[in-house]
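Notes from hallway chat w/ T.B., transcribed later so I don't forget. T.B. wanted the structure written out for a chain they're using in a teaching module, and asked if we could keep both sequence and structure tokens in one place. Agreed to drop them here.
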Amino acid sequence: MTDNTSDGDVSSTSDESGVTANAEQTVQASTAMRAQIAALVSDSNFQERDIYETFDWKRRPRVEQYYALYRTHPFAGPIVDRPAFTTWRDTPAVVDDPDNETDFEQDVDRLFQNLNLDSTFERVDRLAGIGRYGLTVFVTTDALDEDGTVDADRLAQPIDPMQFTADGLDNVVQIRQFSEVSVDGIEWGTEEHAGEGRWGLPVQYSIDFASEGDRDVSQSERVWDVHHSRTVAVPAGRRLDHDFFAPPRLEGTFNILRDILKTLGSVAEMAYRGADKGLAVEYDPEKVNVTNDDFWEQNDEEMQEWNQGLKPLFESVGTVKELGGRIADVSNIFEPQLSALATDTGIPKRVFEGDPAGALASAEEDTQAYFGLIKERRTEYGDPLIATPHVQWFVDNGLIASPIGGTFGWEWDALRVLSEKEQAELEKTRFEALGQVSQDPITDFGHQVVMDYARTGDLPEDVDGVEDMVGELEADSEAAANARSVEEITANYGGDE
């Protein structure tokens, strides 16, 4: 058999085999190197690396650190305050008997009017959010001496309504409220207090009555022991594994908030250094004596005069170059941090960003989600953990009438104010509904009745038949009443306290 393979073909095949072998060796070497790098980067480093130390994060922040962040951080305050402001923007109505007004309901109304109880609810809500809980302390007449001075021994004893010296609500002479920062110590109930229902719960607090922002004054004379029966304790949120404490509202965002401060500080420093550009001056040694000390002293003096703004220019024998800095775009760093805040708190990111009203009004989904959170917060936190315990304290101490059924509930206004367009459409639909029962509603019902119904949906009792026909309409409007305009979400937070 004849061999038709030329010498050139043999050489080519040999070269290709060599290239293939080299390529395989290269791939193997690269793979081995990548494996070694991966081992160093992932396994070795992660086993030895403490990310909390690396990023200067706190594992268990102290309540004083929460308080400092709340008072000074541009986002920490809103995380604690805004849900409370929105929750208590409307005063809830107490419900004892749905059909008749009871003495209890009248007394609760007087509580709101005389003791400004709705403001008490909002304030303790915010104070509780700083740490793990907040306290309302009721100073009553049984704890006072004859001259009106608080008796420390009586304040530390259980409240005694039999020793009240005034009538009704006048026995509450003052209401003080505190965050966890002001509580120096707690005496916890033991098994001996189980009969009182206080096993594992506070029986007495040591409270610093000084202002929480007033820490330059000696606290030794301002700490008072207060019996738990003179207080109402409010957890920071819905409790988890503890019967008294709740996780602080800033716990999940504490390190993120500190990182934001680092970012903001870095931006400010970059802006300063970028705006304050330096200069490099190269002197020609043939024209000036660069070894002369007098020359450098005079040069430094002129440069300082220029740098401090005293002279618009300076004289130089040499080449001047500007050491220009530039300000980096940190939005890509900042955005994930804001997103993390919004995810943890449920507060829309645009609220932190402070978008203009036009942009806010277009974010209907955020509005619905935020007010859905507030609606749930009212029923699961505001009612059972703030409003009810405070009112029950007055019932238990004989200061107001008891509810006829032993328990009571709360009703809240809807969290929505219709937009102008929605209000106009609703009024039009109501006019049309009246037109279905009357050819001339204004003549039959009266101009004022028709206009009031169009605006509010309310009709006088003597106008029969209309409510049934527009029942479906009212159901639709109720379904729509689940959110407020976004401008109202963010308007005047903390403006009136």
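Follow-up for T.B.: Residues 52-130+249-270+330-413 form one domain. Might be a good example for the class.
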